[in-house]
């Protein structure tokens, strides 16, 4: 039996998930996940790593389905609930999903095409009560593949990062011990559940620890404040953009409300920020509001979390901290030399937390590791007085917006399909709220183009967070002697003049 399920059995009668004003115990989730597993095992004893896609809103069903897939021996492929159909189709086809589980509200998205492709579609809540009852579930070894998460990179289309139950265990246990999780904790999940921040750091760490987990969906800063002030929650984890939104909201409150909020926030045990660089301004304002020095940590879909400021000890502004237990970190310069203090280099990671492979992409897997087995993150950092500090990324084509990693190349490829566009280039423009915002520079045929038409068009192709927010039209793109677009020159076009 996988360790997460064995632990849940130990916590059976404790409250696990609070959703829609209802409390579900660990036993409730074990039962519900058993029913999901039984439904999946209709005509086989073990899914044997078949990929099961699931499109479930954050809540108790999400957990039951994820555990159900694992208990049946499948690989869980969470689908982003805000993705348009082409993005969903890509994930489903690339991972080779054979069964799809969807909330009733999403079934209409899949019905017209999945059966044609031979994919079995199961709706939730299931009306098939015949699946309740006893049946044996397969014995799942920890080494088995458990999950595929899609991440953007320097290739145009997202790649599936495969993790085993052992990887997930390593990623979770290092955080549980470092951040002193316990069954007395209570956390609110506001993050999307197709990325590691939400899935590993919040949901799985909580349920591993026997803690309570509450969901807020859809995201609303007003409701977030209400829950944070309820006294039910003592742990919070978010991307810097969410802290920015909380600060903006707090600043508009009347003084007596501000005092009430600050008092409630100061009672939290821990508040964590990650997935993107935490600006000093957010760190300082949040400290003044809540009394908390945010714990900033660094991670990646391929490794879970790798580097973290200490729980006890000095949390340094502008630094991502020290290697987590079990994670080895080194910095490698352009000359393939491991660098020591005060010299910049690429962060490379080794440890039981590091994934083995991109799904069906042996070439990409091969090139993302060094010959001696270190994973190359593409992030450039420096080690100063024992703390790592991120300096940037080695690729200008990777954009981080609202904590989402976005490939400029993927957006360019979609834009090029637009009939009026002859050429284009996509870049990230620094922004205090979003980290970076996606900006597109377009070269239209005949120098004319109606920008109002492009937004609805691109929203039907790409998830909202990948859609450009800024546009500029130019007669031609600047290029270097090799013919490559000089993206740094394009950034200047968007710098606001004082
Ligand atoms: C949305 N908007 C944006 C935007 N996204 N504007 C600029 N840039 C963006 N990226 C605008 C919309 O157009 C809309 O404006 C308004 O903001 C609200 O849009 P929304 O889609 O409703 O956004 P919202 O729900 O408020 O979401 C914001 C958010 C979300 C911060 C909650 O982006 C989020 O959940 N981010 C977390 C992503 C995450 O989990 N990353 C972790 C990856 S794992 P209008 O005008 O239309 O109203 C990883 C590893 C690690 O990175 O280390 O953790
Ligand atoms: P993802 O591929 O979505 O998992 O995003 C991983 C990337 O997020 C990393 O490679 C970093 O570039 C970035 N990241 C995560 N945490 C931090 C942080 N604390 N500071 C700066 N960048 C971060």
Report on this model:
This protein has 498 residues and is an alpha/beta fold. The chain is built from 15 helices and 26 strands. The strands form 6 sheets. It has a 9-stranded mixed β-sheet with strand order 2-1-10-9-11-12-13-14-15. A 5-stranded antiparallel β-sheet has the order 17-16-18-20-21, with no helix packed on it. The protein has a 4-stranded parallel β-sheet with strand order 4-3-5-6, sandwiched between helices. Helix 2 packs across helix 3, helix 6 crosses helix 7 and helix 9 crosses helix 11. About 1% of the residues have low confidence. Bound molecules: malonyl-coenzyme A and adenosine monophosphate. The site of adenosine monophosphate has 19 residues, from strand 13, strand 20 and strand 21.
Bound ions, cofactors and other small molecules, one mention each? malonyl-coenzyme A, adenosine monophosphate
Oligomeric state: single chain
Describe the global form: globular
Unreliable residue stretches: 127-131
- The computed structural class is alpha/beta
How much beta, percentage-wise? 25-35%
Count of extended strands: 26
Question: Helical stretch count?
Answer: 15
> What is the average per-residue confidence, as pLDDT, rounded to a whole number?
95
* Biggest sheet record: 9 strands, mixed
Integer-rounded radius of gyration? 23 Å
The first-to-last residue Cα distance is: 62 Å
Strand numbers in spatial order across the main sheet = 2-1-10-9-11-12-13-14-15
Q: Helix content range of the residues, please?
A: 25-40%
